[in-house]
Protein 1
Amino acid sequence: MQKITSFTVPRVLTILAALLIWKVTVSVLIEYRNYIPPNFDSDFLRGRERYFLGAYRWAFYAHLVSGPASLLLGTILVSDRFRSIVPAWHRRLGRVQAACVLLLVAPSGLWMAYDAATGAIAAVGLGSLAIATAACVALGWRSAVRRRFANHRRWMWRTFILLCSAVVLRMIGGLATVAHFDAPWLYPLSTWASWLAPLLILESSRLLNPPLERVAT
């Protein structure tokens, strides 16, 4: 009984996390109606008319397309079952994922971070997230090329966690709205907490319980 429980609980949690990621991603896609064409009365674009029509526009739309795509690809690529059943497709989609993050997600996120609406703390937090995501996927790719697959899985799990920061950030915003909490420091702090906290949890889980890594990855 204990063995069955230890197997099913991580599996159930993984499925629930994947469903949450897909749900939030779909809700983001629904909001595209405010972005094409740009509606400057919508929450995210409000106050951005001054610089939107410059280079920011191209970074914004690149991020709009590549961000959800890389997140959904990530939920597939971290699946051990998918990797074992169709390893060739895992490699193909992995190359697409790496190119998407390195060429679109990270550069566009870094460019957009410069114009973060809530100031320098948020800008540095989002910029650091973009750099960290690019570094993790590059190191994961290099590990795969060198056939160091254990290292590859670790780096790609870090990449996936960093990509999930968009989901965490949206959840924080949603909870704040429900609680009618609108402190000026909330969003700048959230831009850091949305990726540092999940990353810390991931690394701590590996230190405290290494056998679980084999189940999760």
Protein 2
Amino acid sequence: MSFLLVTKHRDMAPFKSAIKKVDPNIDVEIWPDVKNPKRVQFAVAWRHPKNVFSQYPNLKVISSLGAGVDHLMQDETIPDDVKITRIVTPSLSDQMSDYVLTAVLNLFRNTKTYLNSRKKPNGPFTRS
């Protein structure tokens, strides 16, 4: 059995190291460099490439690396018998609260407009 880490835009090597530190006997692979696709039974994914899971005939569980599973539920190529889960940590509620608070403050304070105006040579918020 092997454990697969799948994402398009993130370095998964630190995750592999952390898992191996807990148990050096766990066979961890990082997509797309998978030695034996038939050995993969568990995957952790975030924003995975379309149809990537069809390469793993013995896949039993896919867990979302993020708080939500929408990206997995929208993938119609995942077989119905594959369980979809998410990782829940004690800090997840605090992290999500911080994210929402930051997003709301950015919206109310027009942070995007402010940052874009700083890029303009004669914008109202540029330093002279």
Protein 3
Amino acid sequence: MTDTKLGWRFPRAFWVANGAELFERAAYYGMFITLVVYLTDRVGFTDVQAGYLAGSFASVLYLLPTFSGILADRIGFRRALLLAFTLLTAGYALLGASQVKSTVIVALALVMVGGSIVKPVISGTAAKCSDENHRARAFSIFYGVVNIGAFLGKSAAAPLRIEFGLEYINYYAALMAMLGLILVAACYRDVDRSGSDKTVRDAMRGLLAVLANFRFLCLIVIIGGFWAIQHQLYASMPKYILRLLGETARPEWLANINPLVVVILVVPITHLIRNVRPINAIAVSLCIIPLSALSIALSPLLQSLAGASVNVGFRTLHPITVMVVLGIALQGLAECFLSPKWLEFASRQAPEGQVGLYMGYMHLSSVFAYLFGFIVSGYMLDRYCPDPRTLDPTAHVQWEAFVRSAGPMPEVYARAHYIWYVFAGVGVMALAGLVAFKIITGKIDARRSRA
């Protein structure tokens, strides 16, 4: 008889895998929060080029695990992790050591492939090291480790950038990846992979089947609008903060507000909406997400009312910082309404008998969101919040005085907040798309039921 008593004891491989995941996430988020800044300030890409490159990097990174997971099943989890962390260590080190554009692209490719292998292997280890009764606890530990690693990485990025330089964030990431490699080499032992017989052809066939389902594809694009606002924060917010508040600002720390809000609120909100229809909960999230961008767009209004600083009790903050904090917190709140119900709603759109297949491709919404969000961000930054080094000498002198609070904002940055109006519009369109989706599919389903 199976022991149904719940506990927190898991095999050694589970804890080693989570330790490796901690290092990998610390490396990735430390690098990623400043990636677009690094690509423009150190490598010399334009805002638009950096948007295309970083967006493609993140987008493909979300797509590859479907296929790299098959490779891991073939060669074994241990060999796959050793390969992954070797690629990550080399990629991050190369990214920090070279500012040659072609070399940077190669470095990002190494990180992309290495990261895509880690994702399915660690989650696969968590699944293999737990039974049905303990699966939820195993993945709660896994997701907790992911958030801790992300928090540590972004927290380390700001002092490294300010005290040493952007390239040292990549060296830090390389060190974290190397520690992960050492941990895997010394402690990780393979787990049973029986039942893993999926081929690349199967994965490609499944992907094409999902993309051929127009209803499901529409839903992916609609929810992709939500995630585009979330994900583009890594593209827009660091440059927006640094160009308007100066190099000593810490956008990396502000990015931690989102996971903090999610960790605090997701459990009570999930309980609160447990009986709410999935589409209604998703609609609430799509009502909140445009407000997150709109709140950042309204920072000039707060500045006109409160002046150059706002007393928030424990310290004074610039109005832009206050509104960015509010906007990121609203993003976290919106995510708490979306995440518990999104998979449930999406699973109901899958054809009968193919729910598992379709759930395996839910990440396509992030594939779309990263590519769309980062590309749009690049164009918006170039137009409304340009790289200070591209300014004419007079405007550049004005900008230097402005970030020292020794002069007015240069005219070229007067509409920098328009970036966030654009993304608020994306959120409104996503909400309108969900309403249209509900109406149209409802009519189609009603017609079929009468036939």
Protein 4
Amino acid sequence: MVVGIPLPVVAVALAVAATLLGDSMLYAVMPSKPEVWSLSIPAVGLLLSANRLVRLVTNSVAALAFERFGSRAPFTFALVLSVVVTLAYGWSTAFVVLLGARMLWGTSWSMLRLGGFWTVLDEASDDNRGLLMGAYNAIVRMGSVGGALIGATLTDAIGHRPTLTIFAGAMAVAGVVWFVSTRGNRPVERVPSSGRAETRSGLVAVLADRRLLVTGAGGLIAGLVFSGLVTASLGFFLKEHFGDKIAFVGIAVGVTSATGWLLGTQWSLGLPLAPLLGYLSDRFGRIPVTTGGFALGAVGLTILALSSTVPLILVGVLVSFVAATGLTVGLSATAGDLAPPERRSAVMSSYATFLDLGSALGPLIGLSFANLATLRGMYGGAALLLLLAAVMFRVAFASGGTGSSEAVRTAEE
């Protein structure tokens, strides 16, 4: 164990973190520098959504692969594929190639994420599921921090192509380290299933169980607003407000670097907050953490919709980022609470599909119009949607229903 976190959770989280370097860099750089790939802003929105749209299909494929081959082979394949697509981001400006790379990355991420979920849930109990999910998310987001902060800064200094090549090399090294260090470990346990029928039954379970359905819908909304709309549009939002440079406290910063630093701050917040919020959800229940996340996110989006000065925009962004961390932990832990062991892979992949649908729609909606006034209106609409989600989640869980977690039962009392 590492500070109370089982070693398998730490190992898989570090491997997944490395694969996020290239993807997170694109969110920091592409919307503010589309010209280096010869892209328009709507094309950027499509590329940043493509990997999420394809996961609506590949999440089920990943579940089938894990059921048939176990966790190690699909996870290893996904690690290799992440290196290939990162090189493609750097060495191609052809839209078709970039689109194909983004779709392959979506396939890879379906397997990487499911491998992470499986490891956490296999190691967790009702007493620490939120803590372990929070710790896993915190470690994984180290990759997002590095991709956004280092990626944006290096792109301004040496260009996007050398930066992405360096990232691909780092991923390869991390993949080899994971493979060697876990070679002697037992594989993640699997419950025998009937393949495709089991995957379909997972989706049926989500749709039939009111609380699973509300959890999935909450994930869709959170993905739409935070992973999709805010993350993808932040660079464009800042550039439209301030141009190529942002002046703050007498210092002028390039908008690409500023976007990277802000996104890095978002994921850095997860390092201390995700385990803490996970522990609090174990101790006091999922409802306060999750509904609080939705409400706080509504406050942050309202500030962004109404603000035009650097200090207020920073406040809005940071409040939104804290809310996103709480929702990531609270919703994923709730899904784990409600996923029966015999259908864990299918239910978790179905839950992930809700997340991906929301996060795929965000960039498409936010960057399709390429207009600051419209984007402000979308931020305001997103705030109302988050408030609706808070009410929906509270009502669904406070009124009872089927469930399997002590944390959920505690929240209802």
